[in-house]
Amino acid sequence: xxxxxxxxxxxxxxxxxxxxxxxxxxxxxxxxxxxxxxxxxxxxxxxxxxxxxxxxxxxxxxxxxxxxxxxxxxxxxxxxxxxxxxx
Length: 87
Description:
Strand content: under 5%
Order of helices and strands: HHHHH
Number of strands: 0
Number of domains: 1
């Protein structure tokens, strides 16, 4: 799907100067906010940003100061998985 967005030139210049590419900067901003608000998952970011692995997503999030969405339930599942020798 293609989406056309109109933004003031000043904002376009700010996005472009920070990312080098207005389109890519806009997509990255959408990805970051989608992940922060828990509307997008890591897997969806892989697809949206054209990455090959979750590790690339982790590096991208880290470079933008965004923490992973990892809660107590995730930790417990990982611990069960490790105890079962499946790690």
